[in-house]
């Protein structure tokens, strides 16, 4: 089998390795498609230089073989997605039901293996609890979006939306558009704030009710104008830096929730007036990673066609064109670029 390792900035080493055998509680997965997320892009473009790195965490594949001790019923050839995050089950956070914050989560799958989630390979071994079956009729490139959807499920749920609420989504990249889709499923009126015209259009096509350019229009005034002067019940920050977070906080109704989903680089303090939070009981929270619960919900939503992500897969490439795939993944005009593991490798 082949695996693609990032060994230096913009440099892949395609290595040959024997196909592994699943041990106790493990499943051997034949990888079919992997989404190239920001995490992998950061290693590729030299933003993070912890090499060698074996990336690939947005994975759709099929079951090849189960080891002993696999509890769920999986059959060879079955279509699955992989929640590529290990949990120890024994630490403070796991025992508190916050397994996405596991203190011992390790993205290196096997002792002696390279650092990284390891999906950029023709085959991979995963723990059975990382495997979530999906419906057979889902396109495998769309199914790679399971991991980002599962992250956004947690984020959107933290906003406690009720039917008819107004939700702001700041940024309309992949994560922003997923927030739009999931907030719509929660019955919200969605206002997208995004400076790029193409992305605003994308958000509107994905179901946003309004898309405004925060550089030209006052987001707060707009939100007040559609809420009888009160403000939005939730604001989801996915991009735009500190300025966007400060602006989002000023757009909330009393008891509104600010969910900081995206990261800010460089990370510097955000300004807000404590009395605004005190008097208005504003909630500021964040969301990171996936949980067992959010992944299971995602697999079911994809399977029952509650969410369609066909508009988010921009281009697909084979392993032999992996450099091109990473170049395209970083282009402003692409949403997800997916690498396919098929006969053309
Ligand atoms: Zn991802
Ligand atoms: Zn743990």
List the helices and strands and how they pair.
Blueprint: E1 2-8, E2 11-16, E3 26-35, H1 38-44, E4 58-66, E5 79-83, H2 92-95, E6 123-127, E7 131-133, H3 140-143, H4 146-158, E8 166-170, H5 174-185, E9 189-193, H6 197-205, E10 210-212, H7 219-225, E11 232-237, H8 241-250, E12 252-260, H9 274-280, E13 283-286, H10 292-303, E14 313-318, H11 322-329, E15 336-340
Parallel strand pairs: 8-9, 8-11, 9-10, 11-12, 12-13, 14-15
Antiparallel strand pairs: 1-2, 3-4, 3-6, 3-15, 4-5, 5-7
The protein binds zinc ion (2 copies).
One zinc ion (ZN) binds next to α2.
Task: Give a description of the structure.
The chain folds into 2 domains: 2-145 and 309-340, Medium-chain alcohol dehydrogenases, catalytic domain (Quinone Oxidoreductase, Chain A, domain 1, Alpha-Beta Complex); 155-286, Rossmann fold (3-Layer(aba) Sandwich), CATH 3.40.50. Helices cover 27% and strands 26% of the residues. The chain has helices at residues 38-44, 92-95, 140-143, 146-158, 174-185, 197-205, 219-225, 241-250, 274-280, 292-303, 322-329; strands at residues 2-8, 11-16, 26-35, 58-66, 79-83, 123-127, 131-133, 166-170, 189-193, 210-212, 232-237, 252-260, 283-286, 313-318, 336-340. The strands form 3 sheets. Strands 3, 4, 5, 6, 7, 14 and 15 form a 7-stranded mixed beta sheet that branches. β12, α9 and β13 form a beta-alpha-beta unit. α4 (146-158) packs across α5. It is globular, with a radius of gyration of 21 Å. Residues 37, 39, 57-58, 147-148 line the site of one zinc ion.
């Amino acid at each position: 089998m082949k695996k693609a390792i990032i060994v230096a900035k913009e440099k892949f080493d395609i290595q040959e390795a024997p196909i592994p055998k699943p041990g106790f509680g493990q499943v051997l997965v034949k990888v079919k498609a992997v989404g190239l997320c920001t995490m992998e892009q950061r290693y590729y473009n030299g933003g993070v230089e912890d090499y060698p790195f074996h990336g690939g965490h947005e994975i759709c594949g099929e079951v090849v073989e189960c080891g002993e001790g696999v509890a769920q019923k999986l059959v060879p050839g079955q279509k699955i997605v992989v929640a590529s995050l290990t949990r120890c089950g024994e630490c403070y956070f796991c025992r508190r039901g916050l397994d996405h914050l596991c203190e011992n989560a390790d993205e290196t799958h096997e002792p002696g293996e390279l650092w990284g989630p390891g999906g950029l390979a023709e085959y991979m071994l995963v723990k059975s609890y990382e495997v979530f079956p999906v419906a057979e009729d889902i396109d495998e490139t769309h199914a790679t979006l399971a991991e980002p959807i599962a992250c956004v499920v947690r984020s959107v749920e933290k906003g406690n939306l009720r039917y008819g609420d107004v939700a702001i989504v700041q940024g309309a990249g992949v994560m922003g558009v997923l927030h739009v889709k999931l907030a719509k499923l929660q019955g919200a009126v969605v206002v997208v704030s995004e400076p790029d015209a193409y992305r605003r259009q994308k958000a509107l096509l994905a179901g946003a009710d309004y898309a405004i350019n925060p550089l030209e229009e006052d987001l707060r005034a707009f939100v007040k104008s559609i809420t009888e002067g009160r403000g939005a019940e939730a604001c989801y920050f996915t991009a735009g830096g500190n300025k966007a977070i400060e602006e989002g906080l000023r757009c909330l109704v009393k008891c509104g929730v600010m969910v900081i989903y995206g990261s800010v680089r460089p990370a510097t303090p955000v300004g807000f007036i404590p009395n605004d939070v005190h008097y208005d009981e504003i909630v500021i929270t964040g969301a990171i990673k996936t949980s067992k619960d959010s992944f299971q919900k995602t697999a079911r939503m994809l399977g029952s066609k509650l969410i369609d992500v066909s508009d988010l897969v921009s281009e697909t490439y084979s392993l032999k064109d992996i450099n091109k795939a990473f170049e395209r993944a970083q282009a402003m005009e692409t949403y997800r670029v997916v690498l396919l593991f098929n006969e053309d490798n």
